[in-house]
Design brief:
Number of domains of chain A: 3
Number of strands of chain A: 28
Strand order of the largest sheet of chain B: 4-5-8-6-7
Number of strands of chain B: 12
Largest interface: A-B, 22 and 19 residues
Structural class of chain A: alpha+beta
Order of helices and strands of chain B: EHEHEEEHHHHHHEEHEEEEEHH
Radius of gyration of chain B: 18 Å
Strand content of chain A: 15-25%
Bound molecules: flavin-adenine dinucleotide
Helix content of chain A: 25-40%
CATH class of the largest domain in chain B: Alpha Beta
Distance between the termini of chain B: 47 Å
CATH topology of the largest domain in chain B: Uridine Diphospho-n-acetylenolpyruvylglucosamine Reductase, domain 3
Strand order of the largest sheet of chain A: 3-5-1-12-9-10-11
Shape of chain B: globular
Number of helices of chain B: 11
CATH architecture of the largest domain in chain A: 2-Layer Sandwich
Number of domains of chain B: 2
Number of helices of chain A: 20
Helix content of chain B: 25-40%
Largest sheet of chain B: 5 strands, antiparallel
Oligomer: heterodimer
Low-confidence stretches of chain A: none
CATH class of the largest domain in chain A: Alpha Beta
Low-confidence stretches of chain B: none
């Protein structure tokens, strides 16, 4: 056994299972007597349901039941709840229209569930669904945020005039207006953050199981947070108390945020299982994923910076219009507000910031958190704006950044938009990235590319994000309807092996390894003797799951606290066994030693004594060696860094290819460098996807045009270069690990680096900004329009 | 998919008989197009007639002709030594279709019968002036392709092989749809017994077509320069979320020049 503790690149414990096809995913689970559900979805973007005739479907072969929204309503099933309430500028609460599990009266997006058919097998359920006679009366549909706010626009919800969910703001308007009035220069940029479709490898699936003898329900589901699903579905939708509802999220094949939310189908299969008294399984087909998994991003913004004569940022003004889709998904309202606008200071010491965010409903799939959630939108806006400022006022873009960076000695740094950054060193990550990316050699590479007919550009992004979500009281004051602490239970078994029960959930991140390494480090137990259990409300304590890069910073910190308790109790047992005083017992490398002597007891001896308490201080100490700790973070964590991207553009076709990518991030303490590298690379691949390829397209009537992988471009291996990953560390100052989080940095930092590189490559063609994705046709049009100018120069 | 009967006849005659006897029956080759269509319930055949056991796969080279069995898969075409040496444009085309799995299943016969407007092989067949052999006749490429997803085949007619006259020079250039990786614009250039022929796939509203203006320019001067100033009109070209008709028109020029330069250098 080599070194396996904090800092070791040990191989992932879960990989033999995944790589040999032995993962156990929701769809791999089959319950005795299981039935299959097919969800009939609206093919209309917006329509009144005039009638649903289920008779033919009900009598089709193999059909056990057909349910509609009316059936659920009659059974007192609640709507899907929203977990975050935003208040508008004027103090009024956001519009929170009803979100029925199965549509009632109206359908509001293509994909909106209308009915469910439950049959002996999938084919029969699908066959019968074709026999459903649903009459619609089409209504005018709204597909984009710009259309939603037009005067006289059709309304998605009758009770939401103007389609406005909220009109929110943050920061102070007056100082910003004053700074603009007195500024030497102002720069303005309008930009779009493209709508994305998550596309986790594993489509969503859910199995509802009901035991008529006890009245207990079990839901197996592709979720990032089983306890949250149990709470939301049990308390608000189906009215089942916790003791009668178990939620299991087994192996989950990627989430990227899209599996945080409580979805219609989870409630459908659980409720239906109770009705038909047999297990009911639903598995999405890929085309259903496109029209039912929450989408991401979808902002239209205006950003303006006021500057002094030296290029110092004086004030930032931002106006954003964002899309909620047709209904509020679980955390949707928080994403473009507290996860977005609070990040608008970025890495800069801009003294005054004012942001207004208007959220609107449209006849599209609900939009919610997607890897980075709000922070990629803020980073894209800022890092594009900074490059445009450099362009407009003629300052070098790196010099402009350095001039405005928050100084190293200014931490903790209070931004004008609520957050207080605990630590960071943006100069260090920039320097290291420039070196690793060989920026000095770029001009030579550009010249060489030109000789091959290629336009080569280099782009930067210097960013910070806020994760490690989150201090409960703080988010509560901002509208969260949940606590965001984390919990761990550490069970040392009689022979000294350890099981960790964590409230976080691993769906590809490698927690079974990273979290186990914390145990290796703190308790000195070999990795092979540490097991990490997650994803089952019947096993794990009430934790909040995994999103917002919180599992290590928050969940890991809870583990540290629980292990502190284990060590403290172990010391008492050791003191008893070795007839020493507790104060003299030291714990190190898995051994309790009487200070200054060679007398010691291994952890396994202590745990055995704890479970076989023959010689044991039974009067003062309970037997057993198991501890639970809840950890509520004191602040967000603030990973940041610098990404440098190089692209080459084929001037004849407009195709841009990322040829070099360097990410130097400050993620605080690194537990497993190999896993960190993988997390950053995956995130950057997604960022490259957003920047160059991905785009959810609705036509003007609300039909999803990019509804399959034939038209929605996911990045593939040949679109992604070898990504160089480096770290420059400042520790988080407020959690015991010093960890900041790494899950989202790649997707947050990278998109503007790519677009800045594209714009740089096209610098001779008179382009100031290009929206994502920078598709070949878009780039070609710019080259066409700019050719005369380029030739003249 | 809907229920259907499944048949795997052992002879061409039996297969044709099954198709003739049941107008709702459909042939299955590699299934790379057909099976997704079935899964999406876009087609409801009464029977699926699997062509796997008809002995229709294999490649033979004799004299100035290469004959490819209809059931020959893409990977076989891509790696065949005769094709590599004699029709390198076809070899590279096959190697760029789909992914490894698709190339091991998909067949030339299936692709031609389907005549997807963004499929690749139609361009090779048309540019090389190949002949499509069926269970009952021979059809020249110029007569075979009749618009999007439409061919000269009778409903119960099966392609058995494709005969390629070996061209002196050939090359294929493909501008991929970034999502599906099918052709947004594919240009196959062949200089062969029938002269220079340039076939464009992916771009036309009516499917694959010949670019006559380029062909005549190249007839006298087989070089990229000869077509450098030819502007392809956007009328009649496809437009979608990835590429407008104008952009496709431009790409035809770029891809054609690259294909000619590559072919000329071979
Ligand atoms: C992911 C993916 C990517 C792809 N990329 C490309 C690409 O880049 N370029 C490209 O050109 N293609 C591409 N294809 C399509 C691929 O080449 C298919 O193999 C081809 O279109 C159909 O061939 P098949 O053998 O699978 O035919 P099938 O799917 O079995 O059949 C297709 C149709 O042809 C009929 N048919 C089949 N054989 C015969 C015959 N001998 N006589 C008469 N009718 C017949 C069938 O009845 C059916 O209607 C791709 C496919 C996939 C799945």
């Amino acid at each position: 056994m080599g070194f396996e503790g904090i800092g070791a690149s040990v191989k992932r414990k879960e990989d033999p299972r995944f790589l040999s096809g032995r993962g156990h995913y929701t769809d791999d689970i089959n319950r005795p007597g299981q039935l299959y559900a097919f969800v009939k979805r609206s093919d209309r973007p917006h329509a009144r349901i005039t009638s649903i005739d289920t008779a033919a479907a009900k009598s089709a072969p193999g059909v056990v039941a057909v349910f509609t929204g009316a059936d659920m309503q009659a059974d007192n099933v609640g709507g899907l709840p929203c977990g975050w309430q935003i208040h508008s500028k004027d103090g009024s609460p956001m519009a929170e229209p009803a979100h029925p599990v199965l549509a009632v009266d109206k359908v509001r997006y293509v994909g909106d569930p209308v009915a469910v058919v439950i049959a002996e097998n999938r084919q029969q359920a699908k066959d019968a669904a074709e026999a459903l006679a649903i009459d619609y009366q089409d209504l005018p549909a709204i597909a984009t945020v710009l259309d939603a706010v037009k005067p006289g626009a059709a309304t998605v919800h009758d009770d939401v005039p103007g389609n406005q969910c909220y009109d929110w703001h943050i920061g102070s308007k007056e100082p910003v207006d004053a700074a603009f009035a007195g500024a030497a220069k102002t720069v303005k940029l309008e930009l779009v953050n493209n709508r994305l479709i998550p596309n986790a490898m594993e489509p969503r699936a859910a199995i509802g199981d009901f035991d008529p003898s006890t009245g207990d329900y079990t839901l197996y589901t592709t979720s990032q947070n089983p306890h949250v699903i149990r709470l939301l579905m049990g308390a608000f939708v189906l009215h089942i108390p916790e003791n009668q509802l178990r939620v299991v999220a087994p192996d989950v094949g990627g989430g990227f945020g899209s599996k945080i939310f409580h979805y219609n189908e989870e409630a459908i299969v659980t409720w239906a299982a109770g009705k038909v008294k047999r297990p009911v399984k639903w598995t999405a087909e890929r085309n259903e994923s496109f029209m039912s998994d929450a989408h991401g991003r979808d902002h239209v913004s205006t950003a303006e910076m006021a500057l002094d004569a030296q290029g110092n940022f004086l004030a930032l003004r931002v106006k954003t219009l964002c899309n909620m889709g047709a209904y509020l998904s679980t955390f949707a309202p928080s994403v473009p507000t507290y996860l977005y606008a609070t990040l608008l200071a970025g890495v800069y010491k801009t003294p005054a910031i004012y942001a207004e965010v208007k959220a609107v409903f449209t006849n599209t799939v609900p939009v919610d958190a997607y890897r980075g959630a709000g922070r990629p939108e803020a980073t894209f806006l800022l890092e594009r704006l900074v490059d445009v400022i450099a362009h407009d006022i003629g300052i070098d873009r790196v010099e402009l950044r350095r001039r405005n960076f928050i100084p190293v000695d200014a931490f903790p740094y209070q931004t004008p938009v609520a957050l207080q950054y605990d630590s960071g060193n943006y100069f260090a990550t920039l320097d290291a990235a420039q070196k690793a990316a060989d920026v000095a050699g770029f001009e030579a590479r550009r010249t060489a590319a030109k000789a091959k007919g290629k336009l080569r550009g280099l782009g930067y992004s210097t960013y910070v994000e806020a994760c490690g979500i989150a201090p409960s009281a703080v988010v509560g004051s901002l509208g969260a309807r949940a606590g965001l602490y984390e919990v761990a239970n550490i069970r040392v078994h009689p022979t000294g092996s350890v099981t960790v029960f964590t409230g976080t959930h691993s769906h590809g991140q490698g927690h079974e390894t990273t979290l186990a390494q914390l145990v290796v480090e703190q308790l000195g137990v070999p990795l092979s003797q540490v097991e990490v259990v997650h994803g089952d409300t019947a096993k794990i304590p009430f934790g909040m799951g995994t999103y917002g890069s919180r599992s290590l910073a928050v969940g890991g910190s809870a583990m540290v606290k629980a292990m502190d308790k284990i060590v403290n109790k172990g010391k008492k047992i050791a003191a008893h066994l070795m007839e020493a005083s507790v104060e003299d017992i030291e714990f190190k490398d898995g051994k309790f030693t009487v200070a200054g002597t060679d007398r010691s007891k291994a952890l396994a001896e202590i745990s055995l004594a704890a479970y076989v308490p023959h010689n044991y201080p039974i009067e003062e100490l309970e037997p057993g060696l198991e501890e639970t700790a809840f950890y509520d973070p004191k602040n967000f964590t603030f990973p940041g860094g610098c990404h440098v991207c190089e692209v080459e553009i084929d001037a004849d076709t407009g195709v841009a290819q990322v040829v070099n990518f360097t990410a130097v991030d400050d993620i605080g303490r690194v537990i497993n460098p190999m896993i960190v590298e993988g997390q950053v690379q995956g995130g950057v691949a997604q960022g490259i996807g957003q920047a160059l390829y991905e785009r959810a397209v609705y036509d003007a009537n609300g039909q999803l045009v990019s509804g399959s992988l034939m038209d929605y471009t996911m990045p593939r291996a040949d679109n992604v270069p070898n990504i160089h990953v480096g770290t420059e560390t400042t520790l988080c100052t407020h959690n015991p690990l010093g960890a900041k989080g790494v899950g989202e940095v790649g997707a947050i930092g990278s998109p503007p680096a790519v677009i800045n590189a594209v714009v740089d490559a096209l610098r001779d063609y008179g382009v100031r900004h290009i929206d994502m994705p920078a598709s070949p046709q878009k780039i070609w049009s710019i080259i066409q329009a700019g050719r005369p100018r380029a030739a003249a120069e | 998919m809907y229920d259907f009967a499944y048949q795997k006849p052992g002879s061409l005659a039996d297969a044709v008989k099954l198709l003739k006897g049941d107008p709702e029956a459909k042939a299955l080759a590699g299934g790379m197009t057909f099976i997704p269509v079935l899964k999406q319930r876009l087609n409801k055949p009464s029977a699926v007639i699997d062509l796997a056991k008809l002995g229709l796969s294999g490649i033979t080279a004799s004299g100035n002709t290469i004959t490819i069995g209809a059931m020959t898969n893409h990977v076989t075409i891509a790696t065949n030594a005769d094709i590599k040496a004699k029709i390198p444009g076809l070899s590279e085309m096959a190697s760029w279709i789909g992914d490894t799995q698709v190339r091991h299943r998909g067949t030339m016969g299936g692709s031609l019968a389907n005549n997807d407007p963004s499929a690749c092989y139609p361009a090779a067949v048309l540019a090389c002036d190949a002949t499509i052999k069926t269970d009952r006749r021979s059809i020249k490429a110029d007569d075979f392709f009749q618009g999007m997803f439409t061919t000269a085949l009778e409903p119960d007619e099966l392609i058995t092989s494709i005969e390629f006259p070996v061209p002196e020079k050939s090359a294929y250039e493909k501008f991929r749809n970034p999502a599906s990786r099918y052709a947004i614009v594919g240009v196959f250039v062949a200089k062969g017994p029938a002269g220079v022929r340039v076939a464009i796939t992916g771009a036309g509203q009516g499917g694959v077509f010949r670019h006559k203006e380029m062909e005549s320019a190249l007839a006298s001067n087989f070089s990229a320069d000869a077509i450098a100033n030819i502007k392809t009109p956007a009328d009649g070209l496809n437009g979608d979320i990835h590429a407008s008709a104008e952009y496709r028109a431009h790409l035809i020029g770029v891809m054609a020049k690259r294909a000619v330069a590559k072919a000329a250098g071979r």
